[in-house]
Amino acid sequence: MKRFLLLFCCVGFCLTTASDALATHVRAGEITTRRISSTALTYEITLTVYYDVTRGAGGGYQAALSQRDVNFCFGVGQEMRRVPRVDAETRNINPNTTINIYRTTYTYPGPGTYEISCTIVNRNEGTRNIPNSIETNFKLRTTIVVNSGLGLNSTPVLLNPPLDSARVGQKWCHNPAAFDADGDSLAYRLYVPSGKQYEADDASCSPLPVAGYTNPATIGRNPTTEAGTGPATLTVNPITGDVCWDAPAEQGQYNIAFIVEEWRDGVKIGEIVRDVQIIVTPSINKRPELKVPDEICVEAGTLINEAITAIDPDGNRLELTGYGGPFNKGADGTTLNLVANPTATLTPSGIQNSPLTGTFRWQTNCAHVREEPYDVIFRVIDFPHATQTQLATLGSFRIRVYAPKPQNLTARPTADAAGRAIALSWSAYTCGTTAPPANAQMVIYRKEGCTTLTPDVCETGVPAGSGYVEVGRVPIGQTNFTDNNKGGGLARGVAYSYRIVVQYPRPGNGQSVVSEEACITLPEQVPLITHVTVDSTDAARGVITVRWTRPPGINPNDGTGPYQYRLLRATGLNGTDFTQIAAINTTLQASAADTVFTDRGLNTVANAYRYRVEFYITDPVSGQLQRLDATENASSVRLTATPGMRRVQLNWQARTPWSNDNRVHRIYRSKTGPNGPFNRIAEVTVQGPDTYTYTDTGADAYAADETVPATMSTDSNYCYRVETAGQYTPPLSATLLYNFSQGVCATPIDTTRPCPPVLSIDQIDCASLSDDALCNQPTFTNTLTWQSPSTGSCDRNVVKYNLYYTPCQDSEPQLLATIDAATLTYRHENLTSMAGCYQITAVSRSGQESAPSNRVCKDNCPFFGMPNVFTPNGDGKNDVFQPLRCPRFVESAELTIINRWGMKVYENSGEGLRWDGKTNREQDLPGGIYFYQVRVKFKRLDCSAPAEVYKGWVEMLRESGGTN
């Protein structure tokens, strides 16, 4: 229960201000919106402003009347619109206050966040916590998220008008009675009022905080709380919206502001600002006392009938009013459509003698169900002598309306395509005389094991931590649901508990109390697989033994025999490629032993295998076999071994219908091979999937079969297998089930690296080559040889070499080839250039790579020469000027010809080094002496080496033509 103590100023007792020509007498206001089109982003925007009219038509009333329109900004650039007042005349909501309403529509261009603002020129003069308030405008803003996914969303509406004034030394509180018709959550925080000095109402669309604003709780000499226990405070309750000033120290007028935030699914989708003016006066009148009910929660359909009592210490007469969504009344007393009929009532109305008892009455129904509670605000004012200040007290309580719980939930076993299912049914859902929304849903929950729930009073939905998980939803009109574990089938012999909850859609988004439990165990009508154990590990001749029990729920004399098992197998722990591998007829006599099948010819080295047994009965009518059910899939145990530093890490897993958790698993080791013989070395208690692991460091902790420790040498191979222990959930079976993994081997590794080899390359003596050496040779080969050092403290267990190569001496070598350890030479063939550098590393059996060897490099032997005479006479002999036979390792060349007078007569690049005695324009040049320059870029080990320049002369001989 909350109580707020306030004052309301009578005419003639409130403070007056000067400069009525400029002051607007705006006491409070806010902007609200609602989307009005389901096909366009069109919103109705409403500005509500309260005016103080205590000085009659010549003061505040005239200011309210003359404010015929207000400038609206919509948050789209600087777009503004002048919006007229809804009513031609002002409307009084009490003798001292009028309400002005301005409304327009606006269509937004697209999704986004928009800030709507409105401005009224000039606040009242003399506002003590706003410097030069009469020259400061009154700005309001509201922020909305425009998004079609939010539906026809609206901001909350503030149903309690800010009418009450404050008294010096007494705590003042206000609650806006905010109500959100969409059922969104609301939160509250303080805010600095907006406004700018000397700014017209159409000057800017950007609300700025009032310059020099002062928290009113700090004004006065040593302001304290009403109880005198500490400094005065101005606070807002972020959940309830109670705005309290405890307590004013000096009389005067003050302005504060607060924000109402709107949240949906954890995301803020809007906020509105209410700016409030508080008039503080001295008073000798004693305030009335008000008592409201504590917070309540009721099932939809309940009639709420609560007494609201008030008494005045001075014996003054009283008036009690109520605010909030259930009343369907706006702040100005007009009728709104906030909640479904019937609306709440508060009787009697009008002025009554003290003590006063009012009756709050509300007949709830299914249309009132919602997740958020309803806030109901009550206000009692007294009517003292005309010379005294009228006082008011506020109180509130919250009402939560939840949906009735579903009734008569039952469960029975059934079969569908998955083979194992449970059919649920319940009574048609009703909510008194009001039907639930058509798009409400029934939500189905399941958990393993029967359980008793004792939800807290008014706790809706499935209690957190109860272990139930949602398994399905159906329309509210449906009264049945079949649970087959989403096609995977349910387990036989397991008790399943079900409960259902009604989920309402938005705007209420409320729930019902959880239903009573329906608990059922599927009867065992299929065998139980008990063993999938690997007997032999081999890539082609592996063996797995599969064992299963007879179906305990089948009577062999019920006339449905003969019976048949069909065994199916898939490859992999999670394999789905099941194929039938056996069909076994059985009589199901009680004395019959478990069925055992030995599966041979498997690759148990590379694969785990998964098995399923299908159980067939004989149809008494047709005499044909038909499948009754199938076991859950069960896989072999899959073991992996990862070498470590003188250790081996083991990990294993299995996919079985029984649980291997919280059991002791056995570890075996062998130095012979993956099929043993094995020696048990450890027993490991596993808790869950992440604990199916064991690290072998060579110890043997199991002495019952002889202790055989190992040195964990990097020269040795160690083989392992694991034996798991598991059990079905009782009462299916109390027997422990033991199954072996395949055998797997690994060799520990060491941190010691191999020694780097010593590398050499076949070199070539360029000086000894003749000019025509290597002529017309298209490819070349570099031969490399190496050897490992015979000394040094390094790993000698080399299994391969990595050879690295780069054609340029300044580049980092890249991997060229990986060579077996038995080979100590390599021919690098099909090269167009012999230039290149090489390094080699050794790699040990444990995967350690040595440091790089010495770096060996080889360069080309370039050659280039030009003749000194040619005869371009067309006889096919010596007709062109070109390099001598076999230039070697030329990458590119440029030729320039100059005559004896220094003029360039020909140049060639990229088209072959040939000059036929003509200009570049194909004009014959005369015979004679010419000079040439050739820039040649060779393929060299130094890839960045500059081009070399060759200069000389050549004589061109022609049969006629003179000299040049």
Automatic annotation (TrEMBL):
<protein>
    <submittedName>
        <fullName>Gliding motility-associated-like protein</fullName>
    </submittedName>
</protein>
<dbReference type="Pfam" id="PF13585">
    <property type="entry name" value="CHU_C"/>
</dbReference>
<dbReference type="InterPro" id="IPR013783">
    <property type="entry name" value="Ig-like_fold"/>
</dbReference>
<dbReference type="InterPro" id="IPR036116">
    <property type="entry name" value="FN3_sf"/>
</dbReference>
<feature type="signal peptide">
    <location>
        <begin position="1"/>
        <end position="23"/>
    </location>
</feature>
<dbReference type="InterPro" id="IPR026341">
    <property type="entry name" value="T9SS_type_B"/>
</dbReference>
<keyword id="KW-0732">Signal</keyword>
